[in-house]
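quick one: flavin-adenine dinucleotide bound model?
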Amino acid sequence: MHIVVCIKQVPDSSQIRVHPVTNTIMRQGVPAVVNPYDLFSLEEALRLKDRVGGRVTVLCMGPPQAEMALRKAISFGADHAILVTDRAFAGSDTLATSFALASAVRQIGRDMAVDLVFCGKQTIDGDTAQVGPGIAKRLDLQLLTYVSQIDAVDPERREIVVRRRAEGGVQVLKTRLPCLITMLEGSNELRFATQAGIFRAARYPVQRWDSKAAGIEDPSRVGLKGSPTVVRKVFAPTPNTQRADLISCESGTPEDLAATLLAKLTTRNPELAALLGRAGMQETGR
Amino acid sequence: MQERFDVIVVGAGPAGNAAAYTLASAGMSVLQIERGETPGSKNVQGAILYADALERIIPTFRDDAPLERYLIEQRFWMLTDDAYIGSNYRSAAFNRPPYNRYTIVRAQFDRWFSGKVQQAGGLVICETTVRELIFDGERVVGVHTDREGGAIYADLVILADGVNSTLARKAGFHAELQPKDVALAVKETLFLAPEVIEQRFGLQGEEGVAIEMTGAITHGMVGTGFLYTNRDTLTIGIGCLLSNFVQQKIPPYELLERMKAHPAIQPLLAGAELKEYVAHLIPEGGYNAVPRLYGHGWMIAGDSAGLVNSVHREGSNLAMTSGRLAAETAIALREADRPFTAENLSRYRRRLDDSFVMKDLKKYRRLPATLHENPQFFTTYPGMMNAAMHEFITVDGTDKKSKEKAIRRSLGERRGWFGLVGDAFKLWRAFE
Ligand SMILES: Cc1cc2nc3c(=O)[nH]c(=O)nc-3n(C[C@@H](O)[C@H](O)[C@H](O)COP(=O)(O)OP(=O)(O)OC[C@H]3O[C@@H](n4cnc5c(N)ncnc54)[C@H](O)[C@@H]3O)c2cc1C
Ligand SMILES: Cc1cc2nc3c(=O)[nH]c(=O)nc-3n(C[C@H](O)[C@H](O)[C@H](O)COP(=O)(O)OP(=O)(O)OC[C@H]3O[C@@H](n4cnc5c(N)ncnc54)[C@H](O)[C@@H]3O)c2cc1C
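yep, here:
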């Protein structure tokens, strides 16, 4: 089986700060990490490989430094790593990103046909959760999002059975391969890389593909040109400083509680009091 | 598959990086192991870099190292609770390249240095902790890491694992750290717009200032405070002997908060916002606390060898120099085709003795004990100096001669003439 895992390198959000003076997000000096959601997918892919054998290829689109993210994946046990990197990709939105990644997956498949593509549920910086579905659509893959468990995979019959978290319950779904899966966070626990894995990662020559190598013929489909979405502004919301009030009354009956609440609301908000007063008048007038 | 290298360097701080870079540049096969996520991720932030030590390792470092500001001014302050007396030294000579001292942010600097190690051909692995040394009899032949299958072998292991140096202690190379031989330092990085920093400290472009402080801020403990300007941050911190913290029971962060609230310091920090806070130990035992530095198949460098000059707040330069000398010792032996026995490696100690590292530590060898036994240097004297200055410059109708008399009398009362003379002698001995 050939499994491709798409991983994105993102700034470690726990360490991002907003500059107090300029109010802009400060990316400089913030360490980069593998998008945490992608690690659940990577672990699941490695477990599938442990179960049925095959190859795991990790794929990332990003600047040259994103090589770090791929190296990390190698340390856990991925077999191959490809960094799709080209100035032409700068400014890509989710449309352009999924176009480029889909094209790269197609190229990867030339060497050995791809049976499964994993993506994270979403990223912690862009947060759109659009790239996975975008790749599935372009490659005409079955799409399974929010997967919490893979029950069975049968490379011969080309079938996979998964559990998928849905509103109000869990769906057990069977579909044909090839398909694209996004894993739910918390569905597994990432392994600790072995010493051999760490050495392999430190020495691994990550392959770099420019847009041509990634099979992209038309450069106007990627980068700023290929991106209809424009980020107008990124800003930190002003934190809400209002505190919650705990409302109680002596009797504790629902009626008295409601009355206490109403009194509190109307003293806080005179406009509301006026409005309620008018409504009350209308009611009594009727 | 067994992994084997000429040399394993433990730690990717200034000492480890200097050693690994020097070894790799000479064509030796080097493995460097760092427990942090990246080199520098475990290291304390804003610091002063002394150019000379790095220049001897990477002469062209100014081309691409992440340097914040070069220092053109040094201030020394002695503080009381509400005043300070001090000296400033600023010189146009400091404004001529090549600059001598820079402020740096360690996380970025260490990552840059590690990049140089890798470019030179060193293999660097992170997020891997060395648990213990592997011995063959008396000889160190490798390390065990915290990873599955983590036995790695080498002809030589250089320990550059920082102040705690658990490894050396576990191996019995040196004894447990004594609370009187280490300082606990806390520091904060605070954001401030570059224009504000420049205006507030009278700087232009990439110029910077360092302020060293002593006195009431340490609440009678043996220690000093400091404030450095980085590009768009300030580093402020204070360090005191661990044994004092234990006695005084003042939480370190509170000490720093009180220092920040000092009327002379607070205005310098106005409008700055906290970026991060770290606490770290500094070996301050000086010359007398330096452990054995080499043995069969091993050498030890930097903080893990206690090589810090606390009087001048120099550490990274001693670390880099000792790392380089350890590496050069190994390279020379390898070229002469001689084994890394304790006897052959003793050359490392001799080279350190001949360098500023041991010469400076030796010069101040009496200081740790002197300061430890004489807290008046941190309590009485700053008060005395400030009071004298106050008296001297207050114009209140008293004639100058009477003022001088009053000052002398107050000095005598506060410490006693006998004490003053004794202290002067002790200090002279300690700095001799
Ligand atoms: C702060 C910020 C705001 C942005 N706002 C927008 C916006 O509003 N609209 C817009 O179209 N673009 C936006 N972008 C730009 C765009 O570059 C996205 O970051 C990028 O298209 C990926 O989308 P995402 O991060 O939301 O990924 P998601 O769709 O959330 O990612 C899902 C999964 O797809 C895979 N994946 C995503 N990106 C990559 C990659 N580069 N390499 C490998 N695998 C990947 C990963 O497995 C990931 O878990 C924004 C970027 C940032 C940093
Ligand atoms: C608050 C403060 C301010 C300072 N200011 C200055 C200054 O302005 N100028 C100056 O020159 N010096 C300063 N110093 C001193 C300076 O920081 C140290 O002397 C210097 O960092 C020593 O370098 P090192 O390489 O020996 O140790 P470190 O920089 O501590 O590096 C040791 C490395 O080893 C790693 N490590 C430890 N154990 C293991 C293990 N078992 N396995 C793998 N890796 C391990 C650690 O993660 C770390 O990265 C300051 C120190 C402090 C605490």
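Chain A touches chain B at residues 17, 19-22, 29, 31, 192-196, 198-199, 202-203 (CB under 8 Å).
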